[in-house]
Amino acid sequence: MKPLRPLIISGKEVLPLVEGGKGISVSNGESSGAWAAQGGVGTFSAVNADSYDEQGHLIPFVYKGKTRRERHDELIKMSIQGGITQARIAYERSNGQGRIHMNVLWEMGAVEPILHGVLSQVQGLVHGVTCGAGMPFKLAEICVHYGVYYYPIVSSARAFRILWKRAYSRFPDALGGVVYEDPWLAGGHNGLSNSEDPLKPQSPLPRVLELRQAMRECGLEEIPIFMAGGVWALHEWQDWIDNPDLGPVAFQFGTRPLLTQESPISQAWKRKLLTLKEGDISLNRFSPTGFYSSAVRNHFLQELNERSQRQIAYSVSPVGEHTEAFPVGARGRLVYVTQHEKEWAEGWIAQGYTQSMRTPDSTIIFVTPEQENEILRDQINCMGCLSACHFSNWAQNEEGTTGKKADPRSYCIQKTLQAVSHTDDVENQLMFAGHQAYRFAQDPFYANGFIPTVQQLIERLQIGL
């Protein structure tokens, strides 16, 4: 394999090996600090990061506010403290080596005050901020204010051009790099546009070449591109290394750092990763963000799929084939459905899915009483973890709402990600993963359940394996 040449990232020469940020509490100070200590770029997530008491015990996210707005304010305070905590741990564990980056999602709730709150307290400890899940126009301005580099996450050259034209061209010197995240292969939320087919993945090479061309047009030929999503072993990417058409490229690993000794995820999660087969990771659109996302197929995703399959369209008055009256909800208000769909609904009700819930799309889904109670309880307990939530209809505007009906086909993302991060439940919670995760079971490096240290993993990555 071609030798890996160091790159200047966030003002320091480091290995072009980057740990991808994964929230909630999946990339933390321990994992990112260990990665940086080996001369790479460690990235902790500041998305609702963990804090600890004086005895080192986890401080759980417990909300006392009676309103969404009050709980949202509590979330902001806890998130800022968690981000500061993890930044300090990461810096201490790095031993002054490598670089420490912080990852946030632009569509997370109160991202701007959280960025200000954390960065104002961690000067010298954090060297860069990566940010995706939306169009982070204000990212550059905020990072420049605190003297750190910024790294937008994009999935197309078009997205970068928009960001550059509207905002980043005013702050060129602080642009540390651009993260290209493959929208078909990356774990977590994916940046697929409406014009791209989720079932027809495109090769990343021509898309990244297009991104580099856009950057050259802006005078950014020497700014590194981080290739993220689908990166497993570098011997598969040799044509990218020292490629003059691509320019400087670093490689971001999101999935492989999950299975290390320093990774904070549960042993149950780690064991699950070692059993995955090709096809066990699903690209779906159940997320309350509205984005596509990639996660492990488990009971959690299966239930969401089945919930949406038990779905029929309705009209509020007879029209066309919608001529059959059908009672909906506790009050039995009549809507109108087709004859075939009425028969389907009656079949589902006979199977125990007796509760009908309306969606924002003039459809009805059918769930059990227990499922309905959980959905309604989670919607009521919303703490505003997103800028706008399809599931609860929360939005961080003056009205505190999207103005649309809450969508029972989705889920509370804060609740399930906290649960999968802090318990052993990997079947009934959302478990994000990149589409290469099945390779843990095939790679001889992980034979007999071997879990490496970060040092051992980085040593292996450097030889291309």
Question: What secondary-structure arrangement, pairings included, does this model have?
Answer:
Layout: E1 7-9, E2 12-14, E3 17-19, H1 29-37, E4 41-45, E5 51-52, E6 58-59, H2 68-94, E7 99-105, H3 111-119, E8 128-132, H4 139-145, E9 149-154, H5 157-166, E10 178-181, E11 188-190, H6 204-217, E12 225-228, E13 249-253, H7 267-273, E14 281-284, E15 292-296, H8 299-309, E16 311-313, E17 324-328, E18 333-337, H9 339-350, E19 355-358, E20 363-367, H10 369-380, H11 413-422, H12 454-462
Parallel strand pairs: 3-13, 4-7, 7-8, 8-9, 9-10, 10-12, 12-13
Antiparallel strand pairs: 1-2, 5-6, 11-15, 14-15, 16-20, 17-18, 19-20
Description:
The protein is an alpha/beta fold and 465 residues long. It has two domains: 286 residues, Aldolase class I (TIM Barrel), CATH 3.20.20; 124 residues, no CATH class. 29% of the residues lie in helices and 18% in strands. The chain contains twelve helices and 20 strands. The strands form six sheets. An eight-stranded parallel beta sheet has the order 3-13-12-10-9-8-7-4. It has a three-stranded antiparallel beta sheet with strand order 11-15-14, with no helix packed on it. It has a three-stranded antiparallel beta sheet with strand order 16-20-19. The longest helix is centred in the first third of the chain and has 27 residues. It is globular and about 70 Å long. The N and C termini lie close together (10 Å). The relative contact order is 0.13.
Structural class: alpha/beta
When the domains are counted, the total is: 2
Assign the CATH class of the largest domain: Alpha Beta
Q: Report the radius of gyration as a whole number of Å.
A: 23 Å
- Record the strand order, biggest sheet: 3-13-12-10-9-8-7-4
Helix content: 25-40%
Outline type: globular
Counting H and I runs of at least 4 residues, what is the number of helices? 12
**What's the CATH H-level homologous superfamily of the largest domain?**
Aldolase class I
Summarize the biggest pleated sheet. 8 strands, parallel
Strand content: 15-25%
Named at the architecture level, the CATH assignment of the largest domain is Alpha-Beta Barrel
Average of the residue pLDDT scores: 94
Unreliable sequence segments: none
Instruction: Give the strand tally.
Output: 20
Q: CA-to-CA gap between the ends?
A: 10 Å
Looking at the structure, the CATH topology of the largest domain is TIM Barrel
